[in-house]
Amino acid sequence: MGTLDPSSEEPPEGEPSFVPPIHPDDRLWRHPSEIGRYAAGASGRHNVRILRRFGPPTVAGALSGVLVAAIVLFTMHALLGSRPTASNTAARTPTPVGIDATLLHHAAARVANSLVTVSAQGPGWNRVGSGTVVSPDGLVMTAASLTEGASTLTVEVGTKTWKATLRGIDPDVGLALLSIAAKGLSPAPLAPPGELKPGQWVVAVGTVATRSQASAPPIAVGPIEAIHQPLQMTSGDLLDTVQFDIPLSRAALGGMLVNMQGQVVAVALKGASGPGSPGAAAPARLVMADTRQLAGTGKVSHGWLGVSGKGVPGGGTGETDRAGVAISSVVPNSPAAIAGLHSGDVVVAVNGQPTPDMAKLRQAIRLQSPGARVALSVMRSERAITLSAVLASTSS
Question: What pLDDT, in 10s, does the model give residues 232-251?
Answer without folding.
Answer: 776 668 889 999 988 888 89
